[in-house]
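Subject — a protein and its fold
Fields — amino acid sequence, structure tokens
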Amino acid sequence: MSTTAKAYGTNAAELPLVPLSIERREPTPHDVEIEILYCGVCHSDLHTARNEWKGTIYPCVPGHEIVGRITKVGDHVKKFKVGELAAVGCMVDSCRECEECKQGYEQYCENGFTGTYNAPDKHLNAHTFGGYSQSVVVDEDFVLHVPENLDLAGVAPLLCAGITTYSPLRHWNVGPGKRVGVVGIGGLGHMAIKLAHAMGAYVVVFTTSESKKEDAKRLGADEVVLSNNVEQMQQSQKLDFILDAVSAEHDINAYLHHLKHDGNLTIVGAPENPLPVAVFNLILGRKSFSGSLIGGIAETQEMLDFCGRHDITADIELINMQDINDAYERMLKGDVKYRFVIDMASLKN
């Protein structure tokens, strides 16, 4: 059984996003149906819609930063009730049987997690559609509780940008007494600054833009270094941990050099081409260079609860659904501080 829902998506890589009608399954015994109130706009949405990562299935409805209110629950649902706020991130299922899933690392599922969009939909024998739509139906095990005190529109980007930065910060034990670097101030970087500051770390932000210095301090930076200023880079003290949120090609060695002995640099940005690493930058100091992908469901809930306690949301620009194509073009130019969020009420117009 299925119902139709209004959505925005595209039928080909070279075409704009337009109104579509999509199928949503009727809730099964363990499902939750959510009326989507807000959906964040992630750079992954653009990459997928335009088939830049290849493998996009059309029609494509992006969106994996979903916040809404529960309108229906299956007979066996225990974690949620009708009327409650709820959120959905980048995953809507996983195999649940491999070692990674059993340990709460569904994002590293050995059989591949089911993405919120552009992934096989075992229920409708089709592919999944994302949050640029009026509703979504998801298994309760992949649905999250939303702190009541937070601005809902600002919560949406936490489901991707928030957890993508929170997970490595937690994994590398960022906290009081630690000097932490953040490379880049964008959708990911601005969340990393807020989270690291709230965790009690001394936060050093690296940026190429003089104009972003004051904004970095507003977000929680203790120190701002212009990475294209040789003198400032040489004077900056060593760091315990660096989170690199830059998606463009850049000199990773300049930042590895800033790590203390046994320090780590984790990259969450995704440059299109490989980044050359000078091995002696790692050997001399037993430093490590790693990557990180979102977070598991339990850790994502932990992140939301942390944000609730510290009153953290993303800095956003709220747009109507009808403005999504313009938003994509602006996003390519970096013309947003720091995340677009769609007011899904506009989809009714």
Observations:
- The chain has a mean pLDDT of 96.
